[in-house]
Design a protein that fits this description.
The protein is built from 2 helices and no strands. The protein has helices spanning 20-46, 53-63.
């Protein structure tokens, strides 16, 4: 597995999210997402899909994510 870059999570106001548990959950989520994406890439390649197309498809998926909490103040 590639070396993980340390991510400094920030609030919408730019404040650092310093809570150890929050950072742990966020990192675990990223690890799970990475593994799921890796598995999906391997499946796609084994089924004959173009490996170079896959990151673009993921980028479109990510770009389409919506914040369900954006209307709350």
């Amino acid at each position: 597995m590639p070396q993980r870059k340390k991510i400094v999570w920030r609030s919408p106001k730019g404040e650092v999210i310093a809570c150890v548990e929050k950072n742990k959950v966020l990192q675990e989520n990223l690890d799970e997402i990475r593994q799921t994406c890796q598995d999906a890439l391997e499946d796609a390649v084994l089924m004959g899909c173009d490996e170079q197309q896959f990151p673009g498809v993921l980028a479109e998926l990510i770009a389409g994510l919506e914040n369900p909490y954006s209307q709350q103040d």
